[in-house]
């Protein structure tokens, strides 16, 4: 048995060199699939794991003697790298300063984002945790302003062909099925947004992606944990911040390109490989406007239990 993803449906192979195993049992402790057990002071593969090796690689990364190799599910020993030293990792104060300095940026300078920075952002985002390895997050990168603009123009053109979706009769028809909250959201947010996006685009103003010099779209597959693209996008956003770029997450595009034939055509045209439950855009570029102050934010609620 193995947990399926869009990239693999096989379990990974576990190879243990008994001559190198020193019996420390760290691999057994970190494997929550119970794929490994100790026998005669050596780690061996278990006969009855829960799912079969998912290829997280933790056993190989924790082994002090290099006795374990995991191959399969897009993983191999070549994926191990030396940990950066603790002294080079950001402190809480440094991380908090980065987080506090971030603002959603929607005004960009007319300066392209260098390809090296796009690579760095992707490199950092790929370190994000995922529901199950191997990551089932897909990324569409719109590398320059012309690409971003063309995408947004086409998106507005696509929306213009879907006006029935926010028409009075359709919303009235759907209310019993999708409930009061969705009805409120559609009438008070989605419907006006349709008109704002398409109307402003007709007047030459891009309120979809704000004429950003680059954009990333993180999305899943039918198998993906819906949180995965959002976590990866958050990592990308913070990486971009650390590189001196301004960013803004855009949640409005994804849900509108999921269902129906027109949506499928739109996705195919733009190289989007799957429909998926969750996805989000992150636009990036050099900010044109500088903020003077931070803005304190609060959660809707925090409930402590002790
Ligand atoms: C999941 C998500 C979706 C968002 N979608 C949009 C969007 O479609 N358009 C937009 O202009 N801003 C969008 N934003 C940005 C928020 O509006 C922004 O975070 C909020 O106004 C607070 O500002 P701050 O990020 O500077 O704290 C989104 C943010 C998140 C986290």
What does this structure look like?
The structure is a single chain. The protein is α+β, with helices and mostly antiparallel strands and 306 residues long. Among the domains are: 13-79, 2-Layer Sandwich (Alpha-Beta Plaits); 92-157 and 206-285, NADH Oxidase (3-Layer(aba) Sandwich), CATH 3.40.109.10. It is 36% helix and 13% strand. The protein is built from 9 helices and 8 strands. The protein has helices spanning 26-30, 58-62, 92-101, 115-125, 145-160, 168-202, 227-242, 253-256, 261-269, and strands spanning 13-16, 36-39, 42-45, 68-71, 138-142, 214-219, 246-250, 279-285. Strands 5-6-8-7 form a 4-stranded antiparallel sheet. A two-stranded antiparallel ribbon has the order 1-4. The protein has a two-stranded antiparallel ribbon with strand order 2-3. β2 (36-39) and β3 (42-45) form a beta hairpin. α4 crosses α7 (227-242) and α5 (145-160) packs antiparallel against α6 (168-202). It starts with 12 loop residues before the first strand and ends in a 21-residue tail after the last strand. Bound molecules: flavin mononucleotide. The site of flavin mononucleotide (FMN) has 10 residues, from β7.
Structural class per helix/strand content? alpha+beta
What does the radius of gyration come to? 23 Å
Largest sheet: 4 strands, antiparallel
The assigned CATH architecture of the domain at 92-157 and 206-285 is 3-Layer(aba) Sandwich
Number of strands: 8
Q: What is the overall silhouette?
A: globular
- Give the strand content: 5-15%
In the predicted model, the low-confidence regions spanning at least 5 consecutive residues are none
Tell me, rounded to a whole number, the average pLDDT.
96
Helix content: 25-40%
Number of helices: 9
Q: Mind telling me the CATH superfamily name of the domain at 92-157 and 206-285?
A: NADH Oxidase
User: What's the level 1 CATH class of the domain at 92-157 and 206-285?
Assistant: Alpha Beta
Bound molecules: flavin mononucleotide
Biggest sheet strand order reads 5-6-8-7
Distance between the termini: 39 Å
SSE pattern, N- to C-terminal: EHEEHEHHEHHEHEHHE
CATH level 3 topology of the domain at 92-157 and 206-285:
NADH Oxidase
């Amino acid at each position: 048995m193995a947990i399926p993803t869009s990239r693999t449906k096989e379990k990974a192979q576990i190879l243990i060199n008994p001559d190198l195993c020193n019996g420390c049992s760290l691999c057994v402790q970190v494997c929550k699939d119970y794929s490994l057990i100790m026998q005669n002071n050596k780690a061996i593969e278990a006969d009855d794991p829960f799912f079969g090796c998912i290829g997280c690689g933790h056993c190989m990364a924790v082994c002090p003697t290099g006795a374990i190799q995991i191959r399969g599910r897009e993983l191999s020993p070549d994926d191990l790298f030396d940990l950066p030293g603790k002294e080079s990792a950001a402190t809480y104060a440094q991380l908090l300063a980065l987080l506090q300095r971030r603002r959603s940026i929607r005004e960009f300078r007319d300066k392209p984002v260098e390809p090296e920075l796009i690579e760095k952002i992707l490199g950092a985002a790929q370190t994000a945790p995922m529901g199950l390895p191997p990551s089932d997050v897909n990324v569409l990168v719109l590398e320059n302003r012309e690409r971003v603009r063309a995408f947004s123009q086409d998106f507005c053109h696509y929306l213009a062909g879907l006006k029935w979706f926010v028409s009075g009769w359709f919303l009235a028809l759907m209310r019993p099925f999708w409930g009061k909250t969705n009805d409120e959201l559609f009438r008070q947010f989605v419907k006006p947004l349709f008109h704002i996006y398409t109307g402003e685009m007709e007047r030459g103003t891009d309120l979809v992606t704000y004429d950003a010099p680059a954009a990333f779209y993180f999305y899943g597959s039918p198998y993906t944990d819906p949180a995965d693209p959002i976590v990866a996008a958050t990592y990308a956003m913070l990486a971009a911040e650390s590189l001196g770029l301004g960013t803004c997450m855009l949640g409005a595009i994804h849900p509108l390109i999921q269902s129906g034939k027109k949506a499928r055509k739109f996705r195919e045209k733009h190289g989007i490989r799957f429909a998926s439950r969750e996805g989000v855009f992150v636009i990036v570029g050099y900010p044109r406007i500088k903020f003077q102050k931070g803005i304190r934010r609060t959660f809707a609620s925090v409930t402590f239990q002790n």
